[in-house]
Amino acid sequence: MKLKSALLMLVLTITTVLTGCQPLMVLDPKGPQAKRQAHDILLSIGIMSFIVVVVFAILIYVLIKYRASKASPDYEPPHIEGNKWVEILCVGIPVIIVTYFSIVSVQSNYIVEAKPQGYQDKEPLVIYASSSDWKWHFSYPEENIETVNYLYIPTDRPIEFKLYSYGPITSFWVPQLGGQKYAMSDMVTTLHLAADEPGEMMGRNANFSGKGVAENTFNVNAVSQKDFDKWVKDVKKSAKPLTKEEFNKLLKPGHLGQMTFTGTHLGFNPPPGHNHSGSAKQEGPTEKSNMDMTGNMDMSENHNHE
Predict the structure, then answer these.
(1) pTM of the model
(2) What strand order describes the sheet that includes 135-140?
(3) Can you give the pLDDT at residue 279?
(4) pLDDT of res. 17
(5) Where are the domains of the chain?
(6) Confidence band (pLDDT; 50, 70, 90) for 295?
(7) What CATH superfamily is the domain 125-289?
(8) CB within 8 Å of 71: residues ≥ 6 apart
(9) Could you write out the DSSP letters of every residue in 44-76?
């Protein structure tokens, strides 16, 4: 009776605690990349839960069937040889499970590294996302504006992030749009994302990079293309220009609020020259966007690292 009461209290406690929890952001996807990853997470949870249930059922069966009994003192148990079928199952099933997970993981890696499914024929919006202690700088070369610690992105359009760092290695992560990817000081990496629906999301640095990493976050506002164009026009009317002196101040360690500028730092403080982002085909939009505001500046990223 006491055991049943304890189990009942445990179930009620867990239920009460879980009802107060917000849904996990990785399981509330807002884009095709995140949906693929959420699918894989739920698939893994389902398969592992089934395995746990089967193992515990077998354990309970064995404990009951082969529990200690009142045998005579001179009882000798029979000699039992190993069963090859049991051994095959014990080894074969884990091999099958691991093989299946490996195939799913490889397929998903190729999917999330490419341009989002359904957006292959659309021109991506290129955004340079650079980190410093402990803030994020977002440069829009096509729009010629720059923001600090917040993003505006259009829905139903692929976003091509170019990631690098002005300090230690950081990790760019918007859980509701896709997985994390590292930003480093000596190379540019590419991350393809897209938002299927408007809304506000949170992004952060998912890699420990010093005492200020806990607040190294940023907001993501996904809006319609019309609202995005309106935001760009409003920024160009009201924001002050970004100068080299101002940008150098922003790079100093510390936390900042959200800031908006016209112009970007790409002209006077360009990203690293070599790129580990993939094929030249993927670099086409970036190369084009890098030429629009400086005229004589060539920040082409076609020297892919061998």
Answers:
(1) 0.76
(2) 189-193, 159-165, 125-132, 135-140, 145-148, 259-262, 240-241
(3) 38
(4) 52
(5) 125-289
(6) very low
(7) Cupredoxins -  blue copper proteins (2.60.40.420)
(8) none
(9) HHHHHHHHHHHHHHHHHHHHHHT------TT--
